[in-house]
Write a structure and sequence with these properties.
- The chain has 112 residues and is an alpha+beta fold.
- The chain has 2 domains: 38 residues; 73 residues.
- The chain has 3 helices and 4 strands.
- The model has no long low-confidence stretch (mean pLDDT 88).
């Protein structure tokens, strides 16, 4: 088990290494991009990466406060689920009604 300081340094090193690894990968438009802090350009839709001591996760979080709007966004992603699964070549978890670590409701597409 790592101390808090050691775990913090490991996480920091992971994100630095990840950033360097992804630096040569351009965006869909062929432009340089910061993949760690990727901005979707769509309000309340986020790509998140989380690395903890025993696991890492990647997710698409839909955080709109209005359930009907959040459901509409989620259904639009579901319409492309087959294509998405074929591209990433694995099955992800699709949750319309999830909550984050603060108890805030969201929809989430994720993998660990």
């Amino acid at each position: 088990m790592y101390s808090k300081e050691e775990a913090s340094k490991l996480r920091q090193q992971f994100w630095i290494t990840f950033g360097k690894y992804m630096k040569p990968v351009p965006s869909a438009e062929g432009l340089p991009i910061n993949w760690v802090n990727y901005k979707t350009g769509v309000k309340n839709v986020f790509f998140r990466m989380n690395a903890e001591q025993k696991q890492a996760s990647i997710s698409i979080d839909i955080t709109h406060g209005d359930l009907a709007t959040r459901k509409l966004f989620f259904e639009q992603f579901v319409a492309f689920k087959k294509i998405f699964s074929d591209v990433v070549n694995e099955d992800w978890n699709w949750e319309l009604n999830a909550v984050n670590e603060y108890g805030v409701p969201l929809s989430q597409i994720s993998t660990t």
